[in-house]
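Title: Comparing notes on inverse folding

I've been comparing how different people in this forum approach sequence design from structure. To keep things fair, I'm posting one structure and asking everyone to reply with a full sequence. Here's the target:
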């Protein structure tokens, strides 16, 4: 169910629980700013979620409140995950849903990284 991106951060969301080690995840990358892990219901041969370690509910929240170091670290982590998975040359897709109309289901900023095959049109008609 899509969420309202203007709601305050919920410390009990599934990604916050993964960050605290309460729920296991198959990690693909981790540093001081970000955690990347494989989606449990992949939509492509490679489907990795990249999340900032700070409590940011959405892209809007992150861009307004995160420090410059957190923003740079998160963006670099996304690029590193793409490189680590051999996706740069063939290409890949990034997707960050925000709010109800955007289809955001977990109130913690996350970027989906898809690759491993041609992905087709960006949006279905």
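Reply #1:
Here's my take.
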């Amino acid at each position: 169910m899509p969420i309202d991106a203007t709601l305050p951060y919920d410390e009990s969301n599934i990604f916050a629980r993964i960050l605290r080690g309460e729920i296991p995840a198959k990690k693909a990358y981790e540093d001081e700013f970000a955690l990347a892990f494989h989606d449990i219901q992949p939509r492509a041969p490679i489907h990795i979620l990249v999340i900032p370690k700070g409590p940011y509910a959405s892209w809007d929240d992150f861009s307004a409140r995160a420090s410059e170091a957190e923003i740079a670290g998160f963006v670099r982590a996304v690029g590193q995950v793409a490189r680590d998975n051999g996706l740069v040359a063939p290409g890949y897709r990034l997707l960050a849903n925000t709010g109800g109309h955007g289809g955001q289901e977990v109130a913690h900023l996350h970027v989906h990284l898809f690759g491993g095959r041609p992905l087709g049109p960006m949006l279905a008609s």
